[in-house]
């Protein structure tokens, strides 16, 4: 049996049991799963997972990583705006510092685009696998697919309304597949 799902790994890791099929192409909501980037390759993720597990006795999900990253980006923007104004910054000063901000988080590089105030990071997906170390299905770290976000997101200035802007960009600019 072969099948794919967009969010097989999009829940709290421990919510998926060992009975989940192996080898399923499984998307990760918000492009984060606690085993990727793998141990030793991205120290920020290794440290985040270790500290999170020590405190909560479970592995972090995409919401935990997103909250952690988002709060650190906001903190950075507030501190930068404070240096410019010398006082607690207003909303516009904070927004100006978030625009084009890049941040290195547990799940990789994140940046805010000034044209739409959205945070972006590379998309990733992978295959499910049973590892003896976990009581639940995880991502096979040897079979992860990473797609640069710039390859699947409409560029700044592309006309259209969300959420159809990227679809329109893909439809008009990507080569057509024929068979």
TrEMBL record:
Pfam families: Peripla_BP_6 (PF13458). InterPro entries: Leu-bd, Peripla_BP_I. Transmembrane segments: none annotated. Residues 2-122 form the Leucine-binding protein domain. Keywords: Signal. Belongs to the leucine-binding protein family. This is Leucine-binding protein domain-containing protein. It comes from Candidatus Segetimicrobium genomatis.
